[in-house]
Amino acid sequence: MTIPKRVRIVEVGPRDGLQNEKQIVGTSTKVQLISQLASAGLTNIEAGSFVSPKWVPQMASSDEVFNIISSTLQPTYPEIIFSALTPNKIGMNRAVEHDIKEVAVFAAASESFSQKNINCSIKESLERFNPVMAKAQSNNIRVRGYVSCALGCPFEGNIDPAHVAEVTHRLLDMGCYEVSLGDTIGVGTPETTAALLSELLSKISADKLAMHMHDTYGQALANILISLQMGISVIDSAVAGLGGCPYANGASGNVASEDLIYMLNGMGIEHGVDLDKLLIAGNTISIALNRANGSKVANALLSAG
Predict the structure, then answer these.
(1) Annotated catalytic, 245?
(2) What domains sit in the chain, N to C, each tagged with a CATH number?
(3) What is the pLDDT, as a whole number, of residue 80?
(4) Closest residue by Cα to residue 34 from 26, 46, 22, 25
(5) Of 33, 72, 186, 288, which residue is least crowded by CB atoms under 10 Å?
(6) Which of 87, 89, 108, 102 is nearest to 46 (CA)?
(7) Catalytic residue among 149, 153, 176, 245
(8) Residue 273 DSSP SS3
């Protein structure tokens, strides 16, 4: 086993976590969440998405959020990367206006999911990224890639790891410095996770890959453990287990950041995050959303008083 001594956590709660919430979250609440996450020691925070408000109403305030980040949070936390999802050239232009240092693009490993989610084929989605990558390069902006449905699709079922590898290679070849493999509907198991990584790691360095696990079937931490044992050192998570997939019935949120931190603490793996401060962030946003905290660790510690 090649378990890393340190793990970099990419906190996706403010974007991937909140985007499917039906209740519109105000700008001040989003900024409070992002500020609390920064205070907890998270150094990579996906803070918003520059997409059409017609398709993702929850992200309509991303310009306001990044204005506040630029004026208050970034000067306070100069080491933190506050990133944004930018699926097209228009979104990329907005990112440049806000002087954002890192953006993300996403493609799917499933043709059906790509059509349902963004109304185009995988090939077409990748072609749309050409102007995004060009703009990013000319403005010295790092680009991170996502591959959705890496371990299963709500429409096609199991996904061939070779398909995931092909899309991942394309994203890396286009200029993404890292690709996050997403179990979008949370159907992966340790066995399928190991099979996927065995395929990818045969040709791609572990430092180019990250894992983005959803916990629909309670398999997220088990899958992350397998990933760590196979040398992956970057994990996406969402405070309070925020998130979900609108195209998958019953698909719950991302693995909770609190649960991930607790496991890493138990394994002696460094990460730089203060669990107590993270608990405050998770409980605060859960109350604001009037929903139960999706973190088992948060609920256990809250019950313990």
Answers:
(1) yes
(2) 8-303 (3.20.20.70)
(3) 98
(4) 46
(5) 72
(6) 102
(7) 245
(8) coil
